[in-house]
From TrEMBL:
This is Cytochrome d ubiquinol oxidase subunit II. The lineage of its organism: Bacteria, Bacillati, Actinomycetota, Actinomycetes, Micrococcales. Keywords: Cell membrane, Electron transport, Heme, Iron, Membrane, Metal-binding, Transmembrane, Transmembrane helix, Transport. It comes from Microbacterium insulae. It is a multi-pass membrane protein. NCBIfam families: cydB (TIGR00203). The keyword Repeat does not apply. The keyword tRNA-binding does not apply. Its main location: membrane. Belongs to the cytochrome ubiquinol oxidase subunit 2 family. It comes from the Bacteria. InterPro entries: Cyt-d_oxidase_su2.
Length: 343
C-alpha cells in the first residue's frame, strides 16, 4: 500500500480514538445540569473522568501533529480556513481544563457553580463544532486553485454541517451519560440511565438522518468507497439502537460499549465517504485536495511509519493500563466521607 494512503487511515484511526474517548468526556461535562442534584452528585460525575480526561485529549494533539507531518497541504488549508472554528474549540478546551483544576480550590457554592457552567460550555462547544468541521470536510468547501479556503466561518454553518454538529453533540452527550451510569452508583446512576433513554431516542433519529444524507451524498457524487460508507452507516445505526436497548435493560457496560462502537463506525463511515479526497472543493472539484497531492514525501512518511510502529502500541498499552487502574465505580459514600474528613 502507498504510504500516503496508509497515513490517511492512520490519521482517521487517531480521530476515531479521539472522538470515542474525548467524546464521552464531553458528554459527562454536558450532563452536569441534568444529573448533579447537589455538590456531592456533581463531584461524583466529574470524578468519573478526573483521572483520564487530560489523557483523552492528547489524542487530538497527536492527530494534529500527524496531520501536519503527513499531509502538510491538508493541514495548511484546514487550519487556515477553519481557523475561527478551531480557535473556539481550543478556547473551550482550555476553559474546561481550567475548570476541572480550579473547581475544588474553594468551598463557596457560587465559585463551584461558576466553574460547573464553564465545564458545560467547554464540553458542548467542541462537541458541536467538531461535528460541523468534520461534516464540512466530507461535504467539501470552496477552495481556489491554490487550495486556499475562500469562504468564512458562516460558510461552515450550512444545513449538512449543522446537522453533523447536532449529531455529534447528541451522540457525545448520550455516550457520556452511558459512562456516568456505568461509573457511578445510587441516585446519579439511576438518573443517568433514565436520561440516556430519553437522549438516546433523539440521538437515533438525528443520527439516522445525518448518516442517510452522508450515504446519499457519497453515492450521488460517485465516491470510490460509497458502498463501504453505506455498510458502515447501517452498522453504526444498528449499534446505536443496541446501545439504547442495552441501557433500557440496565446493562450499562453493554450500552457504553455499543455507544463506543457507534462512534467508531460512524466516523469511519465519514472517512470512507471522504476517500480519496482529504478536502473536496465545492463547486469546482478540480481544486480539491486529494490523498496524493496533499501528502508529504515518501521518505517523511517512511520515518513516520517506523515511529508509529514503535510508539503507538506503547501509547495504547499505557492508556489501557490507566483505564484498568481506575475501573471501579465512583461511590457517593466515599466522596461524602472525604468531604467530612476535609471539614
Amino acid at each position: 500500500m502507498d504510504l500516503a494512503y496508509l497515513w490517511f487511515w492512520i490519521v482517521g484511526f487517531l480521530f476515531v480514538g479521539y472522538f470515542v474517548l474525548d467524546g464521552f468526556d464531553f458528554g459527562v461535562g454536558m450532563s452536569l445540569p441534568f444529573l448533579g442534584k447537589d455538590d456531592i452528585g456533581r463531584r461524583q460525575i466529574i470524578n468519573t473522568i478526573g483521572p483520564v480526561w487530560d489523557l483523552n485529549e492528547t489524542w487530538v494533539i497527536v492527530a494534529g501533529a500527524c496531520l501536519f507531518a503527513a499531509f502538510p497541504e491538508w493541514y495548511a488549508t484546514l487550519f487556515s480556513g477553519f481557523y475561527l472554528a478551531l480557535l473556539l474549540i481550543l478556547l473551550a478546551l482550555i476553559l474546561r481544563g481550567v475548570s476541572f483544576e480550579y473547581r475544588h480550590q474553594r468551598e463557596g457554592l457560587r465559585w463551584k457553580r461558576g466553574f460547573d457552567r464553564m465545564i458545560v460550555i467547554g464540553s458542548a462547544v467542541p462537541a458541536l463544532l467538531w461535528g460541523i468541521a468534520v461534516a464540512n470536510i466530507v461535504q467539501g468547501v470552496p477552495l481556489d486553485a491554490d487550495h486556499e479556503f475562500t469562504g468564512s466561518l458562516l460558510t461552515l454553518f450550512n444545513p449538512y454541517g449543522l446537522l453533523g454538529g447536532l449529531t455529534t453533540l447528541l451522540l457525545f452527550f448520550t455516550h457520556g451519560v452511558y459512562f456516568v451510569a456505568l461509573k457511578t452508583d445510587g441516585q446519579v446512576a439511576a438518573d443517568a440511565r433514565r436520561l440516556a433513554g430519553r437522549a438516546g431516542a433523539l440521538t437515533i433519529l438525528v443520527a439516522a438522518v445525518f448518516l442517510a444524507w452522508t450515504v446519499g451524498m457519497a453515492f450521488g457524487e460517485d465516491r470510490e468507497l460509497a458502498g463501504a460508507t453505506a455498510v458502515l452507516a447501517v452498522i453504526a445505526a444498528a449499534l446505536l439502537v443496541a446501545s439504547w436497548v442495552s441501557n433500557a435493560r440496565g446493562r450499562e457496560g453493554w450500552a457504553f460499549g455499543f455507544g463506543a462502537g457507534t462512534i467508531v463506525t460512524a466516523v469511519l463511515a465519514l472517512w470512507f465517504a471522504l476517500f480519496p479526497y482529504v478536502m473536496p472543493s465545492r463547486p469546482d472539484l478540480a481544486n480539491s485536495l486529494t490523498i496524493e497531492n496533499a501528502s508529504s514525501t515518501d521518505y517523511t512518511l517512511m520515518i513516520m511509519s517506523w515511529a508509529a510502529l514503535i510508539f503507538l502500541p506503547l501509547v495504547l498499552l499505557y492508556q489501557g493500563w490507566t483505564y484498568w487502574i481506575f475501573r471501579k465505580r465512583v461511590s457517593r459514600s466515599r466522596i461524602e466521607k472525604a468531604a467530612a474528613v476535609a471539614h
